[in-house]
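Re: your question from the hallway

Yes, I did run it. Sequences:
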Amino acid sequence: MDLFEIVWLTLKVSGAAVMLSVLLGLPAGTGLALGAFRGRRSLLALANAGMGLPPVVVGLTVAMMLWRTGPLGGLGILYTPAAMVLAQVIIALPIITGLTAAAVQSLDQRIRLESLALGASTPQLVFTLWREAKLGLLAAAMAGFGGAVSEVGAVLMVGGNIKGQTRVLTTAIVMETRMGHFNVAIVLSALLLALVFFVNLVLTHLQQGRRP
Amino acid sequence: MTATVEWESVKKSYDGHRVLDIDQVTLEAGEILVVVGPNGAGKSTLLRLLALVEATDDGCGEYRLFGESVNKGNRLALRRRLAAVWQEPYMFRRSVYDNIAMGPHWRKLSDGIIGQRVKAVADLLEIENLAQAADKLSRGWAQRVALARALALEPELLLLDEPLSALDARMRARLLDRLKPLLSGERRSTVYVTHSEAEAVGLGTRRLALTNGRVI
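Structure:
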């Protein structure tokens, strides 16, 4: 077992999933927070409900869509890291969208008023809101990463835990435990915890700025 | 000369309750209009509508700002020719310098010009520590920075909502003396909202008294 390969793939898959989820969830959450369109409340409820999506259900759904006979079967990505990223995006996206909406909605109403009066265009206003909501948005990214990297059911179903190809820390821990290799499973668990801690340390550093 | 503001039938409601109903608001170029009235008279609402940061009710008359009819296509361009200071200004989580530089930066002015403008308004309003965090300032200092932020835009229309209310009487009188020459001129008109009769006297060229959203 190549430990470095497993850790690297874990970081790559969850990192890509969180980056994609931030790219989609940040504008979506901001739109839900600021918008005044019909169906906004229902979409917000959907995002909030999505924060508790059972990973095995996500895994089954994504697997069915990616089967050769499924609607996305033509992509041919089942049992590849791409499928694992897709499954993790479905898990992380509602978390990041919902928490972004909450962070932006809880901002002081004067920020919008002040920015517009200072001559902000719409993109300038949105970037100002994101900057003012930095604490909440980085917390959303951390929660999204936590949800993605700790998830096992979905990546096992769509990735298949193939050695050297789709084996990540969580799926390796499950496999080693099943095989009775508890010592290996404990070491892998410690590595996963260290990885989660390190990523959150970096994000917390960004979040807290110069505060000790 | 083109009037700065021409607006007939200005109406605003919140949750079905009419808070502003004015037949006509006009402001000539170079004029200072002082708006007075008790709490809840609609003074701040009028200022927000004039600043194009809040939507009016249906059925309002045409708003002509700097001679142009306001519409969706020119709102941003017109908004960039005015500046506003609110009674409780918000300080962004960045330095005092960056707060003052925000508006000019959004207008894509060069760093050199922005630096000159920030220095000039900071000197005028006796703001010394430009590096400190603006969101930690007292209300009085926040009002000074907000004034500096507005003046750095060199606006043609200045909308001031009790801009000196948090300052002590001595500092208020001192800054008002410094501000007066800047409130009107060839390329500037001002709407100045105040509670204080002392401020209102001798400040404006015209006065508008509001009560319950109506002119009295």
